[in-house]
Write a structure and sequence with these properties.
This protein is α+β, with helices and mostly antiparallel strands. It is 38% helix and 25% strand. The strands form four sheets. Strands 7, 8, 9, 10, 11, 12 and 13 form a seven-stranded antiparallel beta sheet that branches. The chain is rod-shaped. The N and C termini lie far apart (128 Å).
């Protein structure tokens, strides 16, 4: 302990008996009713009864590592700063050493103390660390016009000791009450978070709870999209609602999503990675910022909460961090439940849409191929889990003419099914009035291209079969080329003549191809789901393997040929990853060609 500076009674004016005053102080500080008033009582008592010209109470704040001036009595005066850090000025020295400072001259204590002395006329300060049960609470500082004697210094020290004990009890009571309040708030917050499964409403609640507790001006809750490595938000309180997306690692929130750290700063502009573009665009000024991860109980990050501009002190505290960290697990659980609920609703909606699309698709496809003398027709359609855009049809245009149609509409779902319906209606209308395949295809392309509702393109094969002459006229618009297998030799040829897919470009001209059909010849048409099927090793089934399989079974009936192809295809693709609709149409010539 430093040796106190001493002064004679005449230096302080007159001797005084402080015993009675101290007894009153003990009684006052020990009274439960004093409660929070002890903060103001202590400086007032030291001025009124213990000859301090001015007395101040500085309380320690662990989160900022500073002591803050909370109460003062006696001569008016103001410091340049109402907080003090360790080692700076007279108060800072008492804070740093946690030892009393006796009769310290203000003119030598530091610039702030020197200015304070000039403004107030005070010359000396004695500062006493307030310590109770090993806890540093703050500093009691007494200012005078001259040095005081040793007896008065000891009385001040005794007052500091009993004051520290009383302050400790008050602060402990306050902290206990704060803990109880926070537990009550956590309970209420948990109840609210579990009151809804609507994701947007839940995000609103999370921000409302967080902003209310930590007194933030604005805030955002971001959800983790692990698949795309993005954060996204559908709400930002204090702003107009809008969806915000940003990649992992970008900005403060993006950084927290990757590192899992808590970022708490008084001025966000001090962070190199803080993006000022939003402030520049809106005129808002972000100062204090608190950003922390929302973690599931298993530890993984499901979201990030970011709060801006603390409205009371201008700085988010450790207590704010601790409260939000405690709430984090409840937020994560509620978000997970809401996300699963939303996914379930989305799946139900998708299933309803899928069933609708399948219904449309089933209504458009013929139940069975037509019976045509001299020809053996068979068809197999194997849809995948999604309703695709594969379409086939057999249109009888006369007693000896049939139009074979095979198409694939881009995409899946209801939109593709509706585009398929539009294709069927358009095609049937065209073939009733047009007798040229080239003109039919040209008109069909323009009609699909000008349909602003669908915005779909499609590949299509049109095969006009003259059953009297055994001749096939065809146009292939970007579809998988059908194979014509020679019934005698087993050799195959691709029917590729035509042009580009329908609905892509205006004014496309299409070339017609012609093939003679001999007895035992086999025409096989398919969708890309057949030739693009992959094996476990990643090899595609391909047109050559398809042609070889048909050729090997060309003596069989059309239905048996399809069964053989399906068997070989299924064996080949077992364990493969490519899944798509599969359509097979086989037409076998069973009569001689008319001359």
């Amino acid at each position: 302990m430093e040796t106190p500076s001493t002064a004679s009674p005449t230096e302080t004016g007159s001797a005084k008996d402080y015993i009675g005053a101290f007894a009153n102080a003990v009684a006052l500080f020990g009274t439960p009713a004093a409660g929070g008033d002890i903060f103001s009582h202590m400086p007032s008592l030291l001025v009124a009864n213990f000859d301090a010209v001015r007395s101040e109470l500085w309380l320690w704040d662990e989160s900022s590592s500073s002591a803050y001036l909370t109460n003062a009595a006696g001569r008016e005066g103001s410091h340049r700063r109402d907080f003090s850090t360790s080692g700076v000025g007279a108060i800072g020295k008492a804070v740093g050493s946690q030892k009393p400072l006796y009769n310290a001259p203000l003119v030598t204590a530091g610039d702030d103390d020197r200015e304070f002395a000039i403004r107030t006329g005070l010359t000396h300060v004695s500062a006493y660390p307030l310590i109770a049960r090993g806890r540093f609470i703050g500093v009691s500082a007494n200012y005078t016009l001259q040095p005081v004697d040793k007896d008065l210094l000891q009385w001040w020290e005794l007052c500091a000791q009993i004051g520290a004990a009383s302050l400790q009890q008050v602060l402990t009571d306050r902290e206990n009450q704060k803990t109880i309040s926070q537990l009550a708030l956590l309970f209420e917050a948990t109840r609210l978070l579990n009151s809804t499964l609507d994701l947007a409403e839940l995000l609103e609640l999370i921000l409302k709870i967080a902003r209310t507790e930590v007194k933030a001006d604005r805030g955002s809750v971001f959800l983790v999209d692990g698949k795309n490595r993005e954060l996204w938000s559908i709400v930002a309180q204090g702003l107009d609602h809008q969806e915000i997306r940003l990649p992992f690692g970008r900005g403060v929130a993006g950084r927290v999503a990757v590192t899992g750290e808590t970022i708490n700063v008084q001025d966000a502009y001090e962070l190199d990675y803080f993006e000022r573009s939003f402030d520049q665009r809106t005129g808002y000024r972000t100062k204090s910022l608190l950003c922390l991860p929302i973690r599931h109980s298993a530890g993984h990050i499901v979201g990030v909460i970011q709060l801006l501009n603390q409205q009371t002190s201008g700085q988010f505290t450790k207590e704010d961090e601790e409260f939000l960290a405690k709430l984090s697990g409840h937020m994560a659980m509620a978000l997970e439940n809401a996300r699963m609920h939303r996914d379930a609703l989305e799946k139900q909606r998708s299933n309803r849409e899928l069933e609708m699309a399948r219904g449309i698709q089933r209504s458009l496809l013929p139940e069975a191929p037509p019976v045509i003398p001299g020809y053996d027709l068979a068809v197999a359609s194997e849809p995948c889990a999604d309703a695709g855009g594969d379409y086939y049809d057999f249109l009888t245009l006369g007693p000896q003419t049939m139009l074979l149609v095979l198409a694939d509409v881009e995409g899946k779902g209801v939109a593709s099914a509706l585009a398929m319906s539009n294709l069927q209606a358009s095609l049937r209308a065209l073939v009733m009035h047009l007798h040229s395949l080239e003109v039919v295809m040209l008109s069909l392309n323009e009609m699909i291209l000008n349909d602003s509702r669908s915005k779909k393109f499609l590949s299509i094969f049109l095969g006009l079969v003259d059953t009297r002459r055994n001749v096939l006229h065809f146009i292939n618009a970007g579809h998988v080329p059908p194979l014509l297998i020679n019934g005698q030799t087993g050799q195959s040829s691709k029917l590729a003549s035509g042009g580009s897919a329908i609905g892509l470009l205006p004014g496309v001209e299409y070339a017609k191809g012609t093939a003679k059909l001999e007895t035992s010849d086999v025409l096989v048409c398919c969708s890309d789901g057949v030739v693009d099927a992959t094996s476990r090793q990643g090899e595609t089934f391909g047109a050559d393997r398809l042609g070889a399989c048909v050729a090997a079974h060309r003596e069989q009936r059309a239905e048996s040929i399809i069964a053989s192809v399906q068997k070989e295809l299924n064996n080949f693709a077992a364990g493969g990853t490519h899944v798509d609709d599969k359509v097979l149409v086989v037409m076998k010539v069973t009569k001689e060609r008319a001359e």
